[in-house]
Amino acid sequence: MTSIDCFVPCSDAGAADDVLKQVDACPLVQQVYLLVREQQLPDSQASFLNVDAPESTTALRKIADLVRSEYVLLRTSASPFELGQFALDRMSRIAKDTGAAIVYADYYKVAEGVRTMHPLIDYQEGSLRDDFNFGSLWLIPAELFRKAVAEMDQEYRYAGWYDLRLRLSRMGELVHLNELLYTEVEKDTRKSGEKQFDYVDPRNRAVQIEMEQACTDHLRRIGAWLEPVFEEVSLEQTGFPVEASVIIPVRNRIKTIRDAVESVLIQQTTFTFNVIIVDNYSDDGTTRVLAEMASADDRIIHVVPTRTDLGIGGCWNEGVFNRQCGKFAVQLDSDDVYQDEHTLQSIVSAFYEQQCAMVVGSYTMTDFSMNTIAPGLIDHREWTPDNGRNNALRINGLGAPRAFYTPILRELKVPNTSYGEDYALGLAISRRYRIGRIYESLYLCRRWDDNSDASLDVVKLNAHNAYKDKIRTIELKARMRMRSLKQL
Known about the structure:
The chain is an alpha/beta fold. The protein folds into two domains: 4-189, Alpha-Beta Complex (Spore Coat Polysaccharide Biosynthesis Protein SpsA, Chain A), CATH 3.90.550.10; 244-484, Spore Coat Polysaccharide Biosynthesis Protein SpsA, Chain A (Alpha-Beta Complex), CATH 3.90.550.10. It contains 15 helices and 18 strands. Strand 10 (244-250), helix 8 and strand 11 (273-279) form a beta-alpha-beta unit. Helix 2 (57-66) crosses helix 4 (142-150), helix 5 packs parallel to helix 7 and helix 14 runs parallel beside helix 15 (458-487). The two termini are 50 Å apart.
């Protein structure tokens, strides 16, 4: 019979007893250890494993020393949970049938007293972001678990679990079971648009440094790490009508589009520029406002595409291939505004100073009225000259505003999607060319209910995450292929 040893973080006696009742009901379970910060919990009949940080390498070593069964069930959350009918039987059967390095499953989520289904997505080679959601139950063959832990050569306080699953992904398949096998209480009830900036919150910097180290080690081991050597960029092409074009794709932004355009028109520069607004069939009055503004200022190019199948990326292509596009194409979202009248000059100067194909700035989070909100400045300090293009495979975005050398952008072209198109470009460009950085705030990013990513349901969020993972998978393969060709 299959046997399982369970290791579950726990913080109070009531939760401890609840865990024991559940797992004791499963005959496959041989041992249960509660991971606690104190030596024991009063009034609880349980075996304890004292760990200061459950997600640390030290904790994983202690777990590996205690494993005696065929499988390890590792729980990665201390929130209340309930196993579904024969849940562990099902997971262990799938583990045996597939030889998986990890089996994880969909679950029910209880938030504010309401239970809903929480489907997950399949793991793929490019699922490198450290916040990939496996749910909180990982079933791992004990032999692989011990092997992975024994090979750990870095001591992490925060990145132990991340390091573990990267190592396991090199040993076997991480199998997603599309079945709702347990229920857990969701304590973080923030909207998706609020959670997405956690990784750039300065308070999490120590965590991010460790995650970068673990990911970089993984990239080296699979042959996808790139050293900081770049192709030279010639910025000498001529024949452009202006030096820079600000490109704004827009659909139904009557409340914000005027602010966005006016923040461009006030720019003070030593060069000529225009603003190309690609109006994707707005029907809320945006088109009328833009037509009026364009008639009053010949720097405004108001474009309504002939195509009706364009996402944000497709609208970018309309702007970039417009004959009035300048030498540099600079991003501005229709919700947002430039920080001050020097933004455009700073960006264009950075191209020449840093000799790069793309420039990424920094931005400040604000509410609709442009009052600063947490976490404030987003400067993406994780993008370093030495390792930025490798670490980019772990994070979910490169920052804003983004700007591109138009000849290279015309060569690559923008994916015709409405999510992740800028990330795909950043990865592809960084594979060959240097990306310049500006760490001062250039841009005010307004958060309000009409933002496209303000509050996504789990299905839409999964679709976005799966797409970015696919982009990473493609990029990984391209980088490994590039390295192998260089070695021939």
